[in-house]
Amino acid sequence: MAPGEECSVLVHEAPCLAPPHNNISTVLLVIAMQAEALPLVEALKLSQDDTLVFPKSVPWIKYSGIHDGLHIHIVVPGKDAVLGVDNVGTVSGALVSYAAIQALQPDLLINAGTAGGFKIFDKYGVGATKTIPTPKLVEALGLKLGKLSTGNSLDMSPQDEEVIKSNDATIKDMEGAAVAYVANLFSVPAILIKSVTDIIDGGRPTTEEFLENLSMAADALLKTGICVLKFLNGKSIADL
Ligand code: ADE
């Protein structure tokens, strides 16, 4: 074999010099409510470990561990020091996402939580979205795809309703857009997974329906969350 040919064989084998894969390795889940996060923390056997990640003064909590070959971190914004309620909403969601992305450099960010749904939940969301396309994930898990509207109120004012409807949103939460905004700032691929607690245009008081269905929705979120993480195993962002 001529030296040139030998060399060309080596050149063809060159892919071994390139990164072996770009599979997802570190996943950051941002979850606003403890009731939504703790079932996943327990199921994934994650441990609380936030001392080196967040400033001492903040109530934010990080749970971490390895599951199905993925480094998984769940961060929650914790409780309000005075009122004792979960720090839901866009401000806490954005801040905790910012700090966690800086510290953990995730390959993928998932904002998981509950949301209010409209009766027309099946409507496919079209238009500007800052989350990544996940057609294979959606198909494999039989998920519904929709546009999410985020605001800082559980209830919906007439002005909110007008904006939500004019943008074809089919679900409504209190963190998703803020978390996706921060992920986009740092070019971290993001997806939002929401479990519906209440039908906004269903005629019942939202708070009552939300509280009644919270544990059922958290259970559904847990099951779907586990399936999503299983699906991510061995895949790259492009495989989703
Ligand atoms: N989370 C659960 N239900 C919600 C609603 N109706 N609006 C905003 N966030 C929610």
Automatic annotation (TrEMBL):
Superkingdom classification of source: Eukaryota
Protein name (database record): Uncharacterized protein
Organism, scientific name: Diphasiastrum complanatum (Issler's clubmoss)
